[in-house]
Automatic annotation (TrEMBL):
Keywords: Phosphoprotein, Two-component regulatory system. The keyword Magnesium does not apply. The keyword Disulfide bond does not apply. Pfam families: Response_reg. One of its GO terms (biological process) is phosphorelay signal transduction system. This is Response regulator. The lineage of its organism: Bacteria, Bacillati, Actinomycetota, Actinomycetes, Micrococcales.
Length: 129
């Protein structure tokens, strides 16, 4: 799956650097956005294969950004994964209910991340045909 484009929407510079460094080491192309608005705009122009979306962002949050992404027909088959420090069962259930295709808890596991991304890319959208 190397060479696939991953859009990472994350406002924390340390978290963004960690994800970028790990994914680029596994030959993924990483596109970075720091706000929900920027993530939505970039998703429409960079044709990502996967979006990793922080939920707590300045401006619009990850849930609103997801709603906007789902309205764009060009992005219909792109899986969007919630990335959050909220690790309660209810939080995971809400992300699924809101339409996220997966969930990654923070802190991000450097060891597990490449396999998790590969799995999300293989599985695609939950509602894809």
């Amino acid at each position: 799956m190397a060479g696939r484009r991953i859009l990472v929407v994350e406002d924390n510079p340390l978290n963004l650097k960690l994800v970028r460094d790990v994914l680029t080491a596994f030959e993924y192309e990483v596109v970075e956005a720091h706000t929900g608005e920027e993530g939505v705009e970039l998703a429409g122009t960079c044709s990502p294969d996967l979006v990793l979306m922080d939920l707590q962002l300045p401006g619009i949050d990850g849930y609103e950004a997801l709603r906007l992404l789902r309205q764009d027909p060009r992005l219909g088959s792109v899986p969007v994964v919630a990335v959050t420090a909220f690790a309660m069962k209810e939080d995971r259930e809400r992300t699924a209910r809101e339409g996220f295709d997966g969930y990654l808890g923070k802190p991000i596991s450097v060891r597990a991340l490449p396999g998790q991304v590969s799995e999300f890319l293989s599985n695609g959208r939950n509602d894809a045909p």
